[in-house]
Design a protein that fits this description.
- This is NmrA-like domain-containing protein.
- By secondary structure, this protein is an alpha/beta fold.
- The protein contains twelve helices and eleven strands.
- It has two domains: 126 residues, Rossmann fold (3-Layer(aba) Sandwich); 107 residues, Alpha-Beta Complex (UDP-galactose 4-epimerase, domain 1).
- Helix 3 packs parallel to helix 4, helix 8 packs across helix 12 and helix 9 runs antiparallel to helix 10.
Length: 296
Amino acid sequence: MAAGPALVTGATGTVGGQVVRALLAHGAPLRVAMRRPERGPSGVEAVRFDFAEPATYQAALAGARSLFLLFPPSLPRAADRFAELMDAARAAGVERVVFHSVRGAGRLPLPHRKIERVVQAGGVPWTLLRPNDFMQNFATVPVFRDGIARRGVMSTPAGVGRTSYIDVRDIGDAAVKVLTEDGHDGCTYTLTGPEALDLAQVAARLGRVLEKPVRYEPASVPGFVREVRALGNPLPLALIMTSIALIARFGLAAEVDPTLPQLLGKPARGFDAFARDYSHIWSGYVATGVRTEMAV
């Protein structure tokens, strides 16, 4: 591949930020695409880009070798915008597009599948990453983080369903592999963590690390949507978060897939290591009152 940079969208979010850190650690050329580039990471080239403004695409893509895409859940006419973006990427000579989708997009009624099809039809070599739910959501999404830190409670409509949660740091490492190495064009990778846990088990493990009681209280679907919306989040994101919980509730998120350790050449990170590494977030709790930053 040519020596141009990887253009990363969502660089201030949970997943995009980790992709940026992983690319920097790898020493790969990098550019971040942001609505407000002056707020970009220190020492990283930042360019103006807005999914909702196709006029920003061409300049952001100029000279880029590869493109890492996230799906903004509240983007109007998302399929149309992604089609225009793929046209611009092809015209700019981008050699590879990596789309961060979601596990189950190929068989469940999730909006990500429509975007996958647009990417696949865009005329640029593509790779799809389909990770399961993130461990980091317990530490970064206010509806989970604040409840754990303030009241020792997690509440979702997931019931007793299990999920093979993945550490976002592993997603970042996987993204570096497919953005910088050959052999991944046309591949779809399902990415999971090494074990499937229900939320009572998650609560127990967090409680041991934090040395305080943490419990899981199942929520109703309407109650969960109201709680997420009350934090200032758009309805499309609230519905996607609810869908993820219901996928677990119906037993569709528990599979442990071997792809991630095969791709990375090392074991996937486990939940206990995640909880230890992020314990300072719950221990040093300060309610932010900001909107959810959940990259789905």
